[in-house]
Amino acid sequence: MKTEIVCCETIRNELCAAMESSGARYPVHWLPAGLHNVPKDLHRTLQTIFDQISCGRLLLAMGLCGNAISGAWTRDFELILPRADDCISLLLGQERRLALGREKPTYYLTKGWLDGERNIWAEYQYAIEKYGPKRGKMINDIMYAHYRRLGVVDTGGYQLSEIEPLTHQIADTLGLEHEIFPAGVEHICRLLTGPWPDDLYYRFPPQTRIQIYAPNANLQ
C-alpha cells in the first residue's frame, strides 16, 4: 500500500532517526512548527494536505496539538495517528508527560522546536525589541509565569551539545530550572512500521470526518 507521512517540524530530527532505525522510506509532508500556536491554521493546513495527496495510507507523525485534527476529512486513504496529546507527549510518553506536569509545570524544548521561527527564544527577543528591555521582560514574565522548569527532551535524534548553551541561557533568562529528560523514538518507529494497537493509535478509514477531543491536547 502506498504510504505517506505528515510530520510536524518540531520532531523532524526524531522522525528522521526513526526512519533510519526502521528502514521506512515514505514521502514526508512537513508542517511548520509555528502552526502549533494557531490551531485553526494548523487545521486548515492539514485539510489542504489531505485534499491534495494520493495514497492508500497516511501516517500522522504528531500529537493532537490543540485538537487541530478534529473535524478534518480523510479522503481516499486510511489515516493513522498516535494517541498523544501533543508532540512532546509522543516522545516522552503520554502518562509520563502528565506525571511530570503534575510534579512541576514545565516548558519543553527539542532542537526542532528551537529551529522553528516562532520558538520561545524568538518570542522573547521580539518582545524585548518591540517594547524595550523593561516592558518586554515584564510581558515575558507574565507569559511564562506558570512555568517552573525548562525541560530539554533528549531523544537521541540530535546532539545535546548543539542546543545546551542556548537552553541554559533561556532557562537563566526566564528564571526557570533547567532539566534534561531522556526520551526516544520508539512510538514513532511503530507508527512507521505497525502494528497499530487501538490503545496507542487512532485509525480512521477513507472518507471519514475525524471527531476527536482531548482535554489536555494543548499542554505546552
Any overview of this molecule?
The chain has 220 residues and is of the alpha/beta class. It has two domains: 3-86 and 185-204, 3-Layer(aba) Sandwich (Rossmann fold); 89-182, no CATH class. 40% of the residues lie in helices and 18% in strands. The protein has nine helices and eight strands. Strands 2-1-3-4-8 form a five-stranded mixed β-sheet, with helices on both faces. A three-stranded parallel β-sheet has the order 5-6-7. Helix 1 crosses helix 9 and helix 6 (120-131) packs antiparallel against helix 7 (133-143). It is globular, with a radius of gyration of 18 Å. It starts with a strand and ends in a 16-residue tail after the last strand.
CATH architecture of the largest domain: 3-Layer(aba) Sandwich
CATH overall fold name of the largest domain: Rossmann fold
Spatial gap, N to C terminus: 35 Å
| Alpha-beta content class | alpha/beta
Low-confidence stretches: none
Considering DSSP H and I runs of 4 or more, what fraction of the residues is helical? 40-55%
List the total number of helices. Answer: 9
Beta-strand percentage?
A: 15-25%
Q: What is the chain-wise order of helices and strands? A: EHEHEEHHEHHHEHEHE
**Strand arrangement in the largest pleated sheet:** 2-1-3-4-8
Overall 3D shape: globular
Number of strands: 8
- The top-level CATH class of the largest domain is Alpha Beta
How would a textbook summarize the main sheet? 5 strands, mixed
Radius of gyration, in Å, reads 18 Å
The residue-averaged pLDDT reads: 90
Q: How many distinct folded domains?
A: 2
